[in-house]
Design goal:
Length: 191
Amino acid sequence: MTTPPPAPSPAEKPAGVGARPCILLVTGVSGSGKSTVGALLAQRLGWPYAEADDFHPDANLAKMVAGQPLDDGDRRQWLANIAAWIDASSAAGQPAVVSCSALKRAYRDGLRANRPNVRLIYLDADEQTIRARLSARRGHFFPAALLDSQFADLQPPTEDEHPYRVPMTADTLADEIVDHLVASGICEENA
Ligand SMILES: Nc1ncnc2c1ncn2[C@@H]1O[C@H](COP(=O)(O)OP(=O)(O)OP(=O)(O)O)[C@@H](O)[C@H]1O
Ligand SMILES: O=C(O)[C@H](O)[C@@H](O)[C@H](O)[C@H](O)CO
């Protein structure tokens, strides 16, 4: 596991931030743009950003590099690490953005259980766009060949999860997505 950004300690709690700060969970298959959109969103909001890949146990990274998809067992500790980061941010009263593929309903339910302050953003990507992007992406450990396994595992969020769904096509600009998200009031109490 590489080092994710430290969650702030309670002593660093920003003034005026409530007990349940908004945590934006940016989800979607590999290549959907989670890191791009998540980092930009965090920058715009002035909140910390955590990248899900930094929470993987080393064995998971090695498995993916070797071209093998992760299974539920592999993802258990990874999801627990992400949940712990969310809890530390929440305890500190610090709103934050975290990306995580969270492909299956059970993973999202686990990340959101007893965490009503976690709001789901789903980057709904079409396979052709993603395939082209991943083939062009350089310097990333995740092999494009694993994309089929991502779509095989994908259980897109359903309405009862109240996702903020972003259709991702070849012309969807990360900047525009972030504009919409910020303008939508996604973090307001009843959003
Ligand atoms: N809106 C966009 N328009 C064009 N290219 C994009 C957009 N968003 C992301 N990309 C490009 O697509 C590739 C995948 O994006 P990114 O790494 O953000 O996806 P990801 O979902 O975080 O993937 P992973 O889960 O594998 O880390 C990158 O090369 C990125 O520069
Ligand atoms: O659940 C998974 O299969 C993994 O999280 C993958 O999604 C990769 O970590 C990521 O997409 C590569 O960056």
